[in-house]
Please model this.
Amino acid sequence: MNQLSAKELRDKIKAGEIKSVEATKAVFERIAKVEPTVGAYISIFEEQALAKAAQVDKRIAGGEKVGELAGLPVAVKDNMCTTFGTTTCASKILANFHAPYNATVVEKLLSSDAIIAGKTNLDEFAMGSSTENSGLKRTVNPWDIERVPGGSSGGSAAGLAAGLCFAALGSDTGGSIRLPASFCGVVGLKPTYGRVSRYGLVAYGSSLDQIGPVTQTVEDCALMMNVIAGYDPADSTSVDEKTAPLCDYLAKLDEPVKGLKIGIAPKFNAGADEQVRKAIDEAINTYRNLGAAIIEIDMPHFDYAIAAYYMVATAEASSNLSRYDGVHYGHRTRNPNDYIEVYTKSRAEGFGKEVKRRIMLGTYALSSGYYDAYYLKALKVRNLIRGDFVSVFEKCDCIMMPVSPTTAFKMGEKLDDPLKMYLSDIYTIAVNLAGIPGISIPCGFDDKNLPIGLQILAPAFGEENLLRIARMYEKQTDWHRKRPNLNG
Amino acid sequence: MQKKIDEAQVRKVAKLARLELNDKEVEEFAGQLSAILDYVARMNELDTNDVEPLAHCLPIHNVFREDTIKESLGTEKTLANAPQQDGSFFKVPKILEEPS
Model:
């Protein structure tokens, strides 16, 4: 059963061939075995999950209509609000926070009859590329437990790769879905900004954050998108269907895109390790053999994306995280001398190092005298980067490149050098600045048996095509079927 | 803009951010933030005089809705996560000094 994709399992559950209770029990047995090693989950909901599974089984047996994700055990990144359990953002400041409402995506999972098995670990407040910044626990890469799973949705990707759920949700502000998906050998999609509601997603960089699926296959990804995509009146930045019509992402998934034109930027890709480059080149060759045309493109402002991102994202973060004041919710320092210390000490005690660093950086970028030079400048560079994409997409349907210059790195390797850590997002970050969708799909392994991800980017609201393009490759290869050998 | 951020500036920014930092953190951040800002300075290679700042990547317009009364969270749920509360209000240390 653990070999089934989410879609395959869902189909079998719906057909009554497998009981959701069996699938859910299997997941929790697996969790009991390997979770102590992997550390994917911050919280698990065994009792609640089994009760819901039994209910779904009963409804199926009774011939009742069930949802798109009927009986499917899934995981949710712990920066999405749930009325059950805690919503910690892997931060000590929210360690005991019980959200008073469900995020819209959580409501959608529940009303689609998904079984939420647990909430997954992340870099504190989704700030990081390795999940090492979690203030609560350590997640390892199931392919090599001495290496990081990538971040910030490391728990979702590692948990899925280790078979601790059948699909998961992550969030992506600068690569936080695609990078861990790549490091853990699974599929991860960052949808177009506005396609999925952010209501109930704890804010980091509000103009960049987007929720998306982390799945075993491209088909699973389409299935999850069918559930989570759509306009939400509770999120004023979610896009209505008049602006960008929704579609059934599964309907045409198996139809190859005819006359596919792929843009590649060899100069830019040259920055990746040789083995990564080789895998990407081979993947592009697979497309060439399918009849795709390969076009060389130029992205003149790509090299400035990380610089612009770390100003925009940290500025937004410093503003968003000002809500953690030790007054309304979250940690409060024990014996403050005055009300100022309620703020300064509560925040000092509650936030981890990377969060503090980003608050500092963002506060600096927004402070008087530096605003024009840093923040405003970054917004202008952001416009140039968006312009690069607009002109490139006039010539091609999608862009292909690595997700990351390297495969999963060792724990601790980049912890003392924040800039080095930031640079691992070099291929993912421009996508968030431009708001376009990007997917990471497995495309091979290096000589250490670590997964490599192929990144495919498409124009805004081009998810349907993007998934079809990714599916073309998936049907030619079996990288997505490979699983790590974890002894639990 | 090339100027690195020194410890005094780190302390000033920390105050603005309402973040208490110890001496070790101040020293560490001065070095790390300087390195990051040095890297960020590469943006100056680009002439952006005629470029509009882009705050949002997609056309976003104001959203209006009917001003209808809906159920809200309620006092109990609102206060449920408060570090200190008295059933009706959030409690904080005294803000105003006693008049002398």
Observations:
- The longest helix of chain B spans residues 23-40.
- The mean pLDDT of chain B is 90.
